[in-house]
């Protein structure tokens, strides 16, 4: 079953672009990463899905319900972390949790306090006195406290230090094992790589690629660095080069293919040294940020 189903969703702000013709699905129990640079449309997509923004065209279903008509039901049954959180600054964290608990059946504030211990958040402090990262933890706990079946998290890791990020990811993995579906946005592919089953890449308002992480790992990418004694002249063509970087006496590129084929192709190239290493996912994907849709690189 698809927990999120988006069909041709477009949101324009007057004449300016928000998102254009976005379609994708997120299956039950999946962790889906939504990646894109600043201003690419991640928050617009999420805010339209939750009916904080009215769509220009297109439809979407969340938990099988219509995003516009059933938005009250949807907001009650999911956990949502906005990219920027604003609370009553005067309240203490534990007071906020008690207050929020009133919106849900049962006493969810107990669970909130357990999450706070796990995320090392001092709940006796006033919200206005918290750092940006600690305010983010408050937002995360608010999204998780009622144990929703679907989490929609807009840049949850912004402001978290690496240790906290790791604790938070462990928490998300545990939730996935219990059947929770997680959709979260991020600027960073490398962090998504650790966690997601699939990743969607949005650029300039359009979804340009959706990749299954297993497939990505199965593909054979290498980062190749050739060194030359003389000034480097790019007079040869290597099949499988995804992106290249040329300096005076070196040629660096991401290669997609078998190393044996690469070495065969390099037989007549007059380099004096070569390094071949595993690229980061960021390096493999970088061309999506740099080049236009439809650029075929065999990914
Ligand atoms: N309220 C608004 N009025 C006009 N344009 C807007 C508004 N909100 C967003 N936009 C525009 O919509 C586009 C998508 O912005 P959005 O905030 O969705 O991107 P994002 O991927 O979430 O960015 P970031 O990573 O910086 O948070 C941008 O061009 C932005 O300028």
Give the SSE layout.
Layout: E1 2-13, E2 16-27, E3 31-35, H1 42-49, E4 57-62, E5 65-66, H2 71-77, E6 78-81, H3 93-101, H4 109-118, H5 132-144, E7 150-154, H6 162-177, E8 181-186, H7 189-193, E9 198-203, E10 206-212, H8 213-218, E11 221-227, E12 241-246, E13 250-256, H9 259-265, E14 273-277, H10 281-290
Parallel strand pairs: 3-8, 3-9, 6-7, 7-8
Antiparallel strand pairs: 1-2, 1-4, 4-5, 9-10, 11-13, 11-14, 12-13
Residues 13, 16-18, 36, 38-44, 83, 187 line the site of adenosine-5'-triphosphate (ATP).
Keywords: ATP-binding, Nucleotide-binding, Transport
GO molecular function: ATP binding
Pfam families: ABC_tran
Give the low-confidence spans.
292-299
Give the CATH architecture of the largest domain. Answer: 3-Layer(aba) Sandwich
Strand content: 25-35%
CATH-assigned fold name of the largest domain: Rossmann fold
Form type: elongated
Please provide the ordered H/E string of secondary-structure elements.
EEEHEEHEHHHEHEHEEHEEEHEH
Rounded to the nearest angstrom, the radius of gyration is 23 Å
Task: Find the count of extended strands (DSSP E, 2+ residues).
Answer: 14
Identify the CATH class of the largest domain. Alpha Beta
Work out the helix count.
Answer: 10
Oligomer: single chain
Distance between the termini: 27 Å
Q: What is the helix content? A: 25-40%
The secondary structure category is alpha/beta
Describe the biggest sheet?
Answer: 6 strands, mixed
| Ligand species | adenosine-5'-triphosphate
Strand order of the largest sheet: 6-7-8-3-9-10
GO molecular function: ATP binding
Protein name: ATP-binding cassette domain-containing protein
Keywords: ATP-binding, Nucleotide-binding, Transport
InterPro entries: AAA+_ATPase, ABC_transporter-like_ATP-bd, ABC_transporter-like_CS, ABC_transporter_ATP-binding, P-loop_NTPase
